[in-house]
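Hi F.,

I've been meaning to write this up properly since the lab meeting, where we talked about keeping a consistent format for the predictions we share between groups. The idea is simple: the sequence comes first, exactly as it goes in, then the structure tokens exactly as they come out, then a line or two of notes. No screenshots and no reformatting. I'm using this chain as the first example so we have something concrete to point to.
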Amino acid sequence: MTPAPEHPSERAAEESGPAAELPEVAPQLRALRRRTGLTLEAAAARARLSPAHLSRLETGRRQPSLPMLLGLARAYGTTVSELLGEALPAADPVVRAGGPGAREADGWTYWQAGSSGRGMQALRVHVPHGRGQSELVRVHPGEEWLYVLKGGLSLRLGDTEYRLEPGDSAHFDSLTPHRIAAVTGAGADLLFVHTLLQSTLAGLCLGAGAPRP
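Output, unedited:
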């Protein structure tokens, strides 16, 4: 089998040798990739590296160049500081009722219910009845949990459809094709938690028109 060609930035890194001035980043690279639920191949594609080169970075056989660090930080939805193991400022653990206002995406309305940059991201969501979102099917790495606060909700997981009422919850692997829709005229309100750290809201069940937080 012919090995995949390396990106030009990989060849430059090979020629210049390891960046001795950079701290050891292999543990952070492995931990971030696993936390985001990406395979080696998927992470390499996002960072525009070959899987073999990313594997060498994760095992410490190579040190990334600064352009590679920027690409990997974007791929994992984090900062170069975190990749280098630098301490990040502590996030405020409390989200006040008068905090970030409502945002709308393709008819859905959502409010931030947790701190950004965490392994879990939480939202409070209003799903209107009869809008285009009910036709959107999502598949992505991670897990999702939702809890119905008000109204009726239809949750389709693969070929099975569930009807959820207030007080019902669901917890599922989001690699399972899934679709959410309100089945009551006034729509449905729910709490929504997901574990896909690097995703913007546009990558979830909120639709392609969602603004980046």
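Notes:
Residues 19 and 93 are 37 Å apart (CA to CA).
The beta strands are 103-105, 108-112, 121-127, 143-150, 153-157, 160-164, 169-173, 178-182, 188-194.

If this format works for you, I'll send the rest the same way.

G.
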